[in-house]
Structure formats: C-alpha cells, structure tokens
C-alpha cells in the first residue's frame, strides 16, 4: 500500500478510537519545526533542567519542564516556568498572542520572543503539547531583597 494511504488509514483508525489530541492534530513536519525553534531559540537553555550546564545532554523527556535554578538580581528571584504546563492551559491562538506581547522580569528574553513569527510560535506550541507528562510547576518568584534558597545565580553588575 502507498505510504501516504497507510498513514491516512492509521490516523483514521486512531481518530476513530481516540479523541484527537494536539499531538496527533499537528503533523510531523510541524512538530520537527517546533523542536528546531525550541533548540535554536534557546528555550531549553533556561526552561529545561541542567540543559546549559550539561551542554545540552538533558534527555528530551525532561525538556521544557521548568527549572529550580533561581535567577537572583535587583528584580528579586525568578525561575524559568514549566512551559508544558503553560501550553497545556492555552489554545494555540492564545500562545501565539502571548509570544507576541509577553513581558517578564529578567533574564527571560521576552523582547526576542516578541519577534517570533506566528508560524514558528504555533509550531513551538504544538511541539510542547506533544511532549509527555507536564510534571511539576517551577518554584514561584521571590520579591526583591529576599535571599533565595540554593541553587541560584547572582546577577551582580560591576
Ligand atoms: C536566559 C533564560 C531564559 C531563556 C533563554 C528563555 N526563558 Fe522564558 N523565562 C525565563 C524566566 C526566568 C522566566 C520567568 C520570568 C518572570 O518570572 O518574570 C521566563 C518566563 C517565560 C514565559 C512566561 C511563563 C508564565 O508562566 O507566565 C514564557 C511563555 C517563556 N518564558 C517562554 C520562553 C520561550 C518560548 C523561550 C525560547 C524562545 C524562552 N522562554 C527562553 C528564562 C528564560
């Protein structure tokens, strides 16, 4: 049988048996694009535990689950949130709009994310939704002046 027919048949059967999940709804090309945007956009660097310090060796099973490393500076202490939980609570339209308008405390490069094309943002959303169990939320941010628990990185401008 022609591969495309086989795939359509498989999706048809899956669709009949299961509610259509976002992972099934997005095609393989979209998911691959979202994965690429995540890597090249640097989202793993902060939103994936140990990613930067392990030189990118964190298994994909833990990608974008947020991190307990605190970023401490004049803004208080921030933690890169769990983006699986974030995406799970939003529609693709909401995610694209958020990417265009988001503002946060440092060191999130929201000014770069604001420039992401709607196509790339949507692909990233579908990729995140295709990842497995969302896992736990990252710690809540702390106000300025409060010493965070370890581990944290100190931003001291000299
Ligand atoms: C240098 C580290 C860093 C990088 C790189 C980074 N982030 Fe973040 N991000 C953070 C931190 C820290 C926060 C929390 C900011 C705050 O609490 O004000 C955050 C917040 C966010 C939020 C808001 C989440 C919420 O719950 O409101 C989104 C969405 C987000 N980042 C998406 C991304 C995406 C998409 C990328 C890649 C294109 C990315 N981030 C790259 C550190 C980073």
TrEMBL record:
In this chain the Cytochrome c domain maps to 29-132
Print the keywords alphabetically: Heme, Iron, Metal-binding, Signal
Q: Which InterPro entries match?
A: Cyt_c-like_dom, Cyt_c-like_dom_sf
Highest taxon in the source lineage: Bacteria
Keyword Glycoprotein carried by entry: no
Signal peptide (from-to): 1-25
**Pfam families xref list:** Cytochrom_C (PF00034)
Q: Please identify the protein, giving its name as recorded.
A: Cytochrome C
């Amino acid at each position: 049988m022609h591969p495309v027919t086989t795939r359509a048949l498989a999706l048809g059967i899956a669709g009949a048996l299961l509610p259509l999940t976002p992972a099934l709804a997005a095609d393989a090309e979209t998911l691959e694009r979202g994965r690429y945007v995540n890597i090249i956009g640097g989202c793993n660097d902060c939103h994936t535990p140990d990613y930067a310090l392990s030189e990118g060796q964190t298994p994909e099973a833990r990608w974008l689950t947020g991190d307990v490393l605190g970023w401490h500076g004049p803004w208080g202490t921030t933690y890169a949130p769990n983006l699986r939980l974030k995406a799970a609570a939003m529609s693709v339209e909401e995610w694209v709009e958020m990417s265009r308008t988001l503002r946060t405390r440092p060191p999130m490069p929201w000014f770069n994310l604001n420039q992401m094309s709607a196509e790339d943002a949507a692909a990233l959303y579908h990729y995140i939704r295709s990842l497995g169990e969302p896992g736990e939320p990252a710690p809540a941010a702390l106000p300025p002046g409060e010493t965070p628990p370890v581990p944290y990185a100190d931003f001291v401008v000299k």
